[in-house]
Every structure is written in C-alpha cells, then in structure tokens.
Amino acid sequence: MKTSDIQNLKVAVVGGGYAGASAALALLQLGADVHVYEQAPELGEVGAGIGLRPPTVEVLRKWGVFEEFAKVSAPSDAIEVYQSNGELIARDPWPGINEYEQTNHCRMVHRGDVIETLLRLLPAERVNIGHKMITVTDNGDSATVKFENGVEVTADLVLGADGIRSSVRNQIFGEVQPVFSHTIAMRAVISADDAYGLVENDNFRVYVGLNGTTVYFLPLRHRNQVSFDITAPSDDTAWAPEVTHEYIGALLEGFDERLQKIGQELDIASMTNRGVYDIEKQPNWHTNSVALVGDAAHAMLHHQGQGANSAMQDAAWLADAIKDGADLQDALRTYQAKRKPITDVLQDISRKPFDIGDSFPETTSFEKGAGVE
Fold this sequence. Notes:
Layout: H1 3-7, E1 10-14, H2 18-30, E2 33-37, E3 49-52, H3 54-62, H4 66-70, E4 73-76, E5 78-83, E6 88-93, E7 106-110, H5 111-120, E8 127-128, E9 133-138, E10 143-147, E11 152-155, E12 157-160, H6 167-172, E13 179-191, E14 204-208, E15 214-220, E16 225-233, H7 245-251, H8 257-265, E17 272-278, E18 290-292, H9 295-298, H10 307-324, H11 328-350, H12 364-367
Parallel strand pairs: 1-2, 1-12, 2-8, 5-14, 12-18
Antiparallel strand pairs: 3-7, 4-7, 5-6, 9-10, 10-11, 13-16, 13-17, 14-15, 15-16
Helix pairs in contact: 2-5, 2-10, 7-8, 10-11
C-alpha cells in the first residue's frame, strides 16, 4: 500500500494481549492510525512462563525492540526431556537456533512481562482499557465497534484479537465453540529458591509421566523464579477447575521427589487452573474490513508452546502484507493465504501429546523465516 494510504488507515484492535499489542506495534511502525481496546479495567501480571522461539525473536529484532525483551527474559539453548523419575531422555536444541544469529536463542520469559513490555512500547493514548465490546458490524468498506461503556468506533480495519472465545469472530464469521482436549493445565510461578536445586541452567525441562501427566518446568532466572506447569488428563470441562494438594499429589505419584515436594508446597490460591481448549481450523479469517489474529483465528493447545509465538508472528505477517499489498483487501487476502497454512499445521501438531521421541514434530520448516520475509 502507498505510504499515504497506510497513514490514513484507521485500525481498531479489539484485545490487548499478545496478538493485539503485537499487531498494534507492528502497524504503528508502518504509520497507521491504530488504537487498542482492552476489556480489562486494568492491566496486570497474568499467567506463567513461555518460550519465545527464534523466529519470534527475529521479529522483535525486525521491530527494533529486542533489547527491551532481553531485559525481561533469559536465553535457552535446548529443551531437556526427562522420565518422570528424573532420568534424562533427550536434550534437543531449539528448532531454528542454527538458522539465525546465535543471539536468537529461545528466550524464557513470563507471560506478563511480554504483554507489559509490548504495551509499554505503545503510546499510552493508543491503549484504551475498560472497553468491553458488545457488537461489531461489518459495513463493507469499514466496520463499527460498540463498547459496553457507550463508546462507538468506526475503522477501516477492525482486528479481532480477543482470544479463543472471540466475540469479533463469533459475530462476523459465525459461532465457534472451543473444543475440550480432556486435559487440565495447572500453572504456578514459584521462587527458584524453592525448587530444590532443579534450576541448573536456563533450559526448559519436560517430565513425562506414565499416567499421562506431564510437568513443564521453565526457569525464569532473570526473576529468580520458575514457571511450574502440570498438565494431566481430565474430564472436568470447567473453564477454571478447582484443584487440591491431594489431587496434585496423586498426579505426581512416581515423579522425582523434588517435583512432588514442589507440588505439595504450591499456593493453590495463586495458581492458574484451566481446562485446556482449542478451536477447529477456521475456513476464513477476514472480510474487507475485519480480520482475526492470534487465538481468535487459530487457538491451539499448549503442547508445542506455539500460541503466543503464533500470535506475535501473525502481527509481523499482517504488517508485511499491508506494507506490500495493493490495497487493504489485497493485503488481507495475502495475510491469510500465507499465514493460515502455517497455523493450520501448528494447530494439528499441537493436538499431539508431548512425545518423548520427538520434541518438535514437523515444526522446523514452518518456523524458518516466519514473519521476516
């Protein structure tokens, strides 16, 4: 698109998480008139740890913001896979680590630090909190969003970045029900001092149990913390299931005694417990004036750690498509045509339980160069 057309492009981003904040940053750098609308009344620390993959790190370099993320993350060389009893099975370098500069290691980081950093990089006047969307209307060459607080916004492009239960998606593209994976994820952040010496390096550890339970152990050494995640089979379809120390103890039976001790000392009240859901692959992500990014477009299970990475890479691909497109409609067609085949594959492989024999099934070729063409 012509520079003047991009500068006149009004964009309303619904949702201030990974996808929304990343899209806003990428489009603001192009010169578009972008505003983010987040329903939460305040922005605070949420969730646990994630790994930013080398292609995502490359995107951050492309945007000129890598150093800001380096301050709140630590580089990791590999993923270490263990039997539940602590016996090392494999140590696999992160996919893509040899395809980029050595500094583009996978970065271990807290989810809250990612979102806080993204939002801090946006001009304060561009971020509107306490804006819960109630309706979105596709007008053809524009779209109008109405919020619960009475604010109404019409934009050339409305981006649905409002997560797995996206109201933008459901109102424009049809109702989509999340799909239950029959698993539960229990996440906590603990002090590294309470990890019984398990924090030996910055590498992500996976402990695979025989009963279907998996422990994800992600050091956040820049915080002197550890993200501790237990994923286990469950038929409890509640969005936020209740758990007890007794339940956790039963799940961790047979695991390394140090992991069992951590489980019994977790602060249940501070944990994030979620039934694990994704969505089916969606046939269409855009109209002429509405488009989806992140989980709204392709929510996936967490086994491959691709959710946040995919959301941030969506922003890079979308910005490139707008920069290079003949017009907005051409850009949105290009964005979907290039990006969707990648996330379709990632949705499929993310439905596979963690496999001791293959830490990264089929991901490498799709990660290479993502969003940095």
